[in-house]
Design brief:
The complex is a heterodimer. By secondary structure, chain A is of the alpha/beta class. Chain A has four helices and five strands. Chain A has a five-stranded mixed sheet. Chain B has a five-stranded antiparallel sheet with strand order 1-2-3-5-4. Classes of the chains: A alpha/beta, B alpha+beta. Chain A binds chain B through residues 21-24, 53, 55-57, 59-61, 63-64, 66-67, 84, 88, 91-94, 96-97, and chain B through 19-20, 22, 41, 44, 48, 51-52, 55, 100-101, 106-113, 115-116, 119.
Chain lengths: 111, 149
């Protein structure tokens, strides 16, 4: 999985592409979010538009990122989960936990 | 690849206990599902279910032991995909896990593998082998898919 960071105002947008799976994408996601939190960033928007799918470890890492941010009084929100990723969020009921947006501008002003 | 069954195709993979090989399983699963006649989305679901079965086998079954192996056999017949995943561990209790969709468990960072397996194929059966290890059977049939989704 590839990950790049854009800073827009007070929000860090993490653009992810590929798949969030055990030992690969989940590690990249963990490292990037920890890097942002340790750098003082508290508002993180994960752009999932180009993420094809996740496995259970990837889903677990999304939750771990959410909790890490909460512990530091921050928040992790989701942008544009793709078809299969959206299905997985519904199946696992994590759509009840994560604030999810289709529009980036709308997501940015929500922080 | 063996193709002795005129109505189907069989493939057998013997995998070292390495998580980096999950993509091999995923790709083989998707291809076998495609041979069985499933569309792209259903084949991806089969691949995702198989990933979880093999993750279980490598981590919970084989205990991440690099000396152990995971055996995966696939059979693709028209309208039916079946696979067995066998590890070399002491066995594990698949029913032991919590319900990851229950409100108190939503923030758990693990325990969703079985949920995904059951969601993406029609049947998931666990059997503790007499000799050694667990055998997990996954079945997806197009007839079931057309009535359930």
């Amino acid at each position: 999985m590839k990950a790049s960071i854009r800073s827009i105002g007070k929000v860090a947008v993490l653009d992810l592409s590929g798949k969030i799976t055990i030992g690969e994408g989940d590690v990249v996601l963990r490292e990037k979010v920890i890097e942002l939190l340790e750098g003082g960033q508290r508002n993180i928007l994960l752009n999932l538009e180009k993420v094809g799918y996740m496995d259970s470890a990837g889903i677990g890492e999304l939750v771990a990122c959410y909790k890490r941010a909460k512990e530091k009084a921050g928040s992790v929100k989701l942008l544009n989960p793709s078809g299969k990723v959206f299905d997985l969020l519904q199946l696992t009921k994590l759509e009840e936990i994560f604030e999810t947006f289709k529009d980036e501008k709308e997501a940015l002003v929500s922080f | 690849m063996r193709n002795s069954d005129p109505h189907g195709v069989s493939v057998r993979l013997v995998l070292p206990n390495e998580l980096r090989l999950l993509d091999v399983v995923h790709a083989a699963s998707e291809k076998m599902a495609e041979i069985a006649g499933f569309d792209e989305d259903a084949a991806l679901n089969v691949g995702l279910a198989m990933r979880e079965a093999v993750i279980n086998a490598m981590i919970h079954g084989n205990g991440r032991d690099p000396a152990r192996k995971v055996l995966v056999t696939f059979v693709a017949r028209p309208s039916r995909f079946q696979a067995k995943v066998v590890d070399e561990g002491a066995g594990f209790d698949p029913a032991q896990g919590m319900d990851p969709t229950a409100p108190p468990n939503l923030l758990s960072t693990s325990g969703r593998g079985l949920l995904l397996m059951r969601a993406f194929v029609d049947e998931v059966r666990f059997r503790r082998r007499r000799s050694r290890g667990m055998e997990v059977t996954l079945v997806k049939s197009r007839a079931a898919a057309s009535t359930t989704s």
